[in-house]
Amino acid sequence: MTEQERYFDNITEEEFAEGISIRRLIDDITDRLAAMAKEERLEWFRQAQYPHPVSFTREIDGTIYTVNAHFKQGASESLQEKTERILLKNHGKD
Hints:
Blueprint: H1 3-9, H2 13-18, H3 20-34, H4 38-48, E1 55-60, E2 63-68, H5 79-91
Antiparallel strand pairs: 1-2
């Protein structure tokens, strides 16, 4: 079970519906990443990457929701390269 899955197992339905839990998770991750050196952040992202398509299924109130992400095969940069470029660009604005 991933860190994010453990986190979502401990939230209420109301928190999930209002996006509160997601904002808390993002804030927590952002704080931890901000405290890391550049190489530590890049390593964290390498370890956090999905080695398979980014997809998941979740049941909420008896309804099963499936989310699938699709990426262009012929893209000029990989998801990792794009993420690193965006993070490094935004980091320079601090």
